[in-house]
């Protein structure tokens, strides 16, 4: 029997608190601004990808959730696969002439997301991170997470951050070749373990405008984006990094909500305008704002921070001690959605993850 060359890897999504929205180089996926996210650590939002190399395969093929997804020549999937094959050849095969020439075999890749794909829950982030990790494992590549971050970035920008856990910054970089545009860990999750992320699935429909095309339209038409990338994001990156290192939830919450608002404002400032949030999204914002107002009035500071990616689904960051109360609050306003709220960050006793209970 011939040897089977196969590897499986899984990666979680990350949800940005300083949003990436805009490319200065669309081919290499170099961003117009740095960004910062939290990688979720529970199992609700993950991509799991298995890659297999075999001399009998006739073409590189990807199945996403059981359906074949075209690998376009020169496209993002092809770029990642080609680069990983090149590294296999340049390292393992070059150093050991007896190593199997996996770089010359076609690959079959099967990936599953355990949550809605292309619905604004960062499936491209976990998807490309898992794809790159699985091929790197298949090829036994002796490379650092930084190298994998650079490759994943060329699949989907946000994917470069999912190679790390905890609080992660994607530094925009200055080199035109993208060699310094990669993610670094600002702090591991263990640094601030009582920060939780409540995922509120408002809709699992595929979004109308993909992140890729939406952000390009914004770059081409929005004057507000220019102000954002020059005058706003650099200071926010510094301030939120400091807030994370100091476990200052008030500052973390203020900046997170302000940045989500500004991202959706630049989407609206795009020609034609892009709307990612819907009425339920806006109602959740109103609930969080009121909840914080009461808490601030009681001298207790901010208790919750909402953020929305390119879709209507809310992510609420909060300290563990307040999570149950927030779930009760959200579910009381949207009882028909009971079960659609999951706490996705933080360490729980096994099987004791907090699901929405009215
Ligand atoms: P999202 O908000 O879910 O990230 P995007 O518009 O950024 O939505 O990207 C969605 C696209 O990402 C999908 O249409 C698909 O091409 C790609 N993608 C999603 N999941 C995976 C995966 N597991 N493996 C490979 N590619 C994926
Ligand atoms: C709103 O990384 O999905 O989620 O690089 O074109 O694949 P491409 O876009 P993508 O954009 C993510 C946008 C965002 C904000 C963020 O994750 O930082
Ligand atoms: Co995406």
Automatic annotation (TrEMBL):
Pathway info: Isoprenoid biosynthesis; isopentenyl diphosphate biosynthesis via mevalonate pathway; isopentenyl diphosphate from (R)-mevalonate: step 3/3
Primary enzyme class: lyase
InterPro entries associated with the record: GHMP_kinase_C_sf (IPR036554), Mev_decarb (IPR005935), Mev_diP_decarb (IPR029765), MVD-like_N (IPR053859), Mvd1_C (IPR041431), Ribosomal_Su5_D2-typ_SF (IPR020568), Ribsml_uS5_D2-typ_fold_subgr (IPR014721)
Annotated Mvd1 C-terminal domain residues: 197-358
Enzyme Commission number(s) of this protein: 4.1.1.33
Protein's GO biological process: isopentenyl diphosphate biosynthetic process, mevalonate pathway; sterol biosynthetic process
Reactions it catalyzes: (R)-5-diphosphomevalonate + ATP = isopentenyl diphosphate + ADP + phosphate + CO2
Keywords associated with the record: ATP-binding, Lipid biosynthesis, Lipid metabolism, Lyase, Nucleotide-binding, Steroid biosynthesis, Steroid metabolism, Sterol biosynthesis, Sterol metabolism
GO CC terms, sorted: cytosol
Name recorded for this polypeptide: Diphosphomevalonate decarboxylase
Organism in which the protein naturally occurs: Laccaria amethystina LaAM-08-1
């Amino acid at each position: 029997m011939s040897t089977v060359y196969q590897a499986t890897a899984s990666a979680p999504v990350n949800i940005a608190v300083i949003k990436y929205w805009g490319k200065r180089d669309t081919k290499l996926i170099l961003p117009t601004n740095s960004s910062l996210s939290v990688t979720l650590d529970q199992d609700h939002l993950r991509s799991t990808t298995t890659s297999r190399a075999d001399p009998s395969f006739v073409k590189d093929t990807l199945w996403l959730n059981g359906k074949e997804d075209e690998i376009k020549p020169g496209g993002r999937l092809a770029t990642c696969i080609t680069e990983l094959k090149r590294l296999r050849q340049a390292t393992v095969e070059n150093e050991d002439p007896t190593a199997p020439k996996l770089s010359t075999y076609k690959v079959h890749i099967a990936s599953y997301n355990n949550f809605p794909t292309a619905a604004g829950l960062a499936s491209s982030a976990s998807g490309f991170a898992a794809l790159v990790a699985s091929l790197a494992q298949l090829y036994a590549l002796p490379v650092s997470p930084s190298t994998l971050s650079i490759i994943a970035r060329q699949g989907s920008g946000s994917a470069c951050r999912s190679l790390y856990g905890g609080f992660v910054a994607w530094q925009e970089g200055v080199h035109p070749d993208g060699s310094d545009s990669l993610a670094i860990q600002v702090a591991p999750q263990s640094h601030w373990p009582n920060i939780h992320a409540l995922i509120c699935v408002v809709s699992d429909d595929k979004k109308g405008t993909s992140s890729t095309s939406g952000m390009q339209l914004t770059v081409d038409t929005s004057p507000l984006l220019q102000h954002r990338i020059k005058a706003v994001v650099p200071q926010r990156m510094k301030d939120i990094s400091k807030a994370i290192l100091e476990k200052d939830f008030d500052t973390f919450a203020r900046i997170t909500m302000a940045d989500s608002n500004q991202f959706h404002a630049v989407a609206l400032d795009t020609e034609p305008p892009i709307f990612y949030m819907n009425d339920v999204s806006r109602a959740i914002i109103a609930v969080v704002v009121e909840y914080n107002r009461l808490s601030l009035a009681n001298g207790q500071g901010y208790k919750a921070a909402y953020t929305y990616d390119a879709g209507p689904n809310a992510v609420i960051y909060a300290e563990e001690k307040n999570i149950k109360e927030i779930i009760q609050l959200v579910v009381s306003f949207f009882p028909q959605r009971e079960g659609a709220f999951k706490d996705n960050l933080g360490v729980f006793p096994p099987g004791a993850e907090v699901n929405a209970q009215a």
